[in-house]
């Protein structure tokens, strides 16, 4: 009896998840599919077109460096917006701290192992993360706090002193 009830619950959850993925968030599925196709193509092309372990290591290492630098470089547009608006409203502080620490720790590991691929990509990540932290330090005070924001609706006061939204 418990097995039947639990299997019905699992089926219900799977159907809800499929509905969510395919109907409401189709773009998430498309991005995931593109990533899987890219990964499969990289594996197949490397295995069949590149011969020798050292050459394969070089090709995969260069590909990983490029993709890792792209990952660390994604907030560049947000950093430009932070400089333009002089507000860190769009720059997630915890993500910036985590990104900096991740790049710094991997850089330290790469320097201990003398691994050029990890050094280049995570050195770039540590530099970009430190730039984000500098921007946070510079513009932290100029960003309005959540309670300081004005309401989105216009309010008018009536003759009896009551305030009503328009």
UniProtKB/TrEMBL annotation:
**Quick check: keyword Transmembrane helix in the entry?**
yes
Question: Can you tell which superkingdom this protein's organism belongs to?
Answer: Eukaryota
Q: Indicate how the chain sits in the lipid bilayer.
A: Multi-pass membrane protein
One cellular component term (GO) for this entry is:
endomembrane system
The principal location of this protein is membrane
Which Pfam family, an example, fits this chain? MtN3_slv
State the Gene Ontology terms under molecular function.
sugar transmembrane transporter activity
Please name the InterPro entries in this protein's record: SWEET, SWEET_rpt
Keywords of the record, alphabetical order, are:
Membrane, Repeat, Sugar transport, Transmembrane, Transmembrane helix, Transport
Record localization: Endomembrane system
Residue ranges of region Disordered? 145-166
- Which residue ranges does UniProt annotate as crossing the membrane? 17-50, 56-78, 90-111, 117-140
Family (UniProt): Belongs to the SWEET sugar transporter family.
- Name of this protein: Uncharacterized protein
Q: Which organism is it from?
A: Kingdonia uniflora
């Amino acid at each position: 009896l418990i097995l039947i009830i639990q299997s019905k619950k699992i089926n219900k959850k799977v159907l809800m998840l499929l509905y969510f993925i395919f109907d409401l968030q189709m773009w998430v599925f498309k991005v995931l599919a593109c990533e899987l196709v890219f990964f499969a193509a990289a594996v197949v092309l490397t295995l069949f077109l590149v011969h020798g372990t050292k050459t394969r290591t070089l090709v995969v290492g260069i590909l990983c460096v490029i993709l890792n630098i792209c990952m660390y470089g994604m907030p560049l547009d947000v950093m430009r917006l932070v400089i333009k608006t002089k507000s860190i409203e769009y720059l997630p502080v915890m993500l910036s701290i985590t990104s900096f620490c991740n790049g710094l720790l991997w850089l330290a590991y790469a320097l201990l192992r003398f691994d050029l691929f990890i050094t280049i990509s995570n050195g770039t990540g540590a530099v970009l993360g430190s730039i984000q932290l500098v921007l946070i330090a510079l513009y932290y005070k100029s960003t309005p706090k959540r309670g300081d924001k004005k309401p989105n609706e216009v309010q008018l006061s009536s003759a009896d002193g009551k305030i009503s939204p328009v």
